[in-house]
Amino acid sequence: MTTHSPSSPRRRALLAASLLPLLAGPPALASAPWPRRAIKWVVPYLAGTGPDTTARIVAEAVSKELGQPVVIENRGGVGGNLGARQVAKAAPDGYTWIYSGSPMAASMRMYKAPGYDVLKDFRHVIGLTSSDTTVIVHASSDIRTLEQLLTRMRAQPGKIDYASGGIGTPSHLGVEMLLSVAQAEATHVPYKGASEIVNAVMGQQVTFGAPITSVAYANIQAGKLRALAVTGPRRNPKLPGVPTLAELQVPGVELTSWGGVSVPTGTPDAIVARVRAALDAALRQPAVVSALEEQGGQVFVQDSEAFTRAFGKEIAFTETMMKRARLEPM
Predict the structure, then answer these.
(1) Do 138 and 121 belong together in one domain?
(2) Is residue 89 part of a domain?
(3) Does residue 1 lie in a domain region?
(4) 296: helix, coil or strand?
(5) Does residue 73 share a domain with residue 49?
(6) Longest dimension (CA), the chain
(7) Are residues 113 and 144 in the same domain?
């Protein structure tokens, strides 16, 4: 039998070969396709809000497309800024998403230090949905039209209060814009999301609010809330009997809230493309579209380029609204 000393060339070659996998790392993991584990989708608003409902509907479908769970994490507060800050600092590996949208863009002007830059700290993957907002009062209120509401506010400046989903949200800026154009005054009571606006109006803690239609829709249909007007450019198909602000002689106050998916800057192109493709496939499913539209919103798919441009436009629009409403950054 032939033996080899530990220092023989053959022995050294065998030892080096055995160490290569350890030095190079596990080849199976290095080449494994993404995703290999659950994905966290941060919704920077409370449970029950329009973004939360949308994300949960889409997450179920996109989980099947990706073969891994997409888990919703609600991180509400400061108009969505808390969740945005969290995701901006997350590892750019595709395992942390954020439900991004118009409120995050508005925060760039509403706050002196929002804690992130919506155009620099994120890659905007795809736009998903769009929704108008609806001016609502309690169903038992003696206010039956928008004109009656405006007349009362003009007669009692600052005595009528309204709920918003937080400073800088569409429900805040939209009402302030409405008040400015209509030359009326009301007291702002900020809450933490659209679902809280609905609860505040239903609980008669405030006189009115303008939440995202998708959040208020079920209670409007149930006869618990009265819809006075919608803020979109045209009537909402789910509320065909409710006029637009333009129809009610309140021009220039068109407001929609839109949202989609963004990931931290630095996320690789291949992963971004995979996320986009999976979400696009989910949104092509009739059951998903039907579930989203049943909430009173509309599927509004935008590719990465269009979705990114929307943030820039919303920042400029917010600046204009703030000037008209005489609002200063916080």
Answers:
(1) no
(2) yes
(3) no
(4) coil
(5) yes
(6) 109
(7) no
98, 125 contact by CB (below 8 A): no
Q: How far apart are CA 19 and CA 326, in angstroms?
A: 68
Write the CATH number for 219: 3.40.190.10
Alpha-carbon torsion angle 75, 51, 130, 286, nearest 10: 140
Looking at residue 201, its amino acid is V
Task: Please check whether residue 157 is in contact with residue 185, taking contact to mean a CB–CB distance below 8 angstroms.
Answer: yes
Pair of tokens at residue 51: 């973004």
Number of structural domains, the chain?
A: 2
Q: Is residue 112 within 8 Å of 150, Cβ to Cβ?
A: no
pTM of the predicted protein model = 0.77
Please give the residue range of the domain that contains residue 98: 39-131+257-325
Contact 330, 190 (CB under 8 A): no
HSE-up of residue 266 (Cα within 13 Å, Cβ side): 11
Tens-place pLDDT, residues 151-198: 999 999 999 999 998 777 778 888 988 998 899 999 999 987 788 999
What's the start-to-end Cα distance of the chain, in Å? 84
Q: Are residues 211 and 192 in the same domain?
A: yes
CA–CA separation, 183 and 194 (whole Å): 25
Nearest-CA neighbor of 282 among 16, 63, 102?
Answer: 63
Residue pair 108/114 in contact by the 8 Å Cβ criterion:
yes
Tokens of 274: 């995979």
Query: 125 with 140, same domain?
Result: no
Return the CATH number at 314. 3.40.190.150
Tokens representing 91 are 């590892």
Q: What is the rounded CA–CA span in Å between residue 64 and residue 330?
A: 42
Q: What is the spatial distance between Cα 77 and Cα 99, in angstroms, rounded to a whole number? A: 14
Amino acid type, 324: R
**Range 242-261 burial, b when 16+ CB lie within 10 A, else e:** bbbbbebebeebbbbbbbbb
Within-domain flag for 4:
no
Tokens of 308: 């990114």
C-alpha span between 187 and 92 (Å, rounded): 42
Digit-coded pLDDT (tens) for 241-266: 999 999 998 987 878 889 999 999 99
Residue 314 lies in a domain: yes
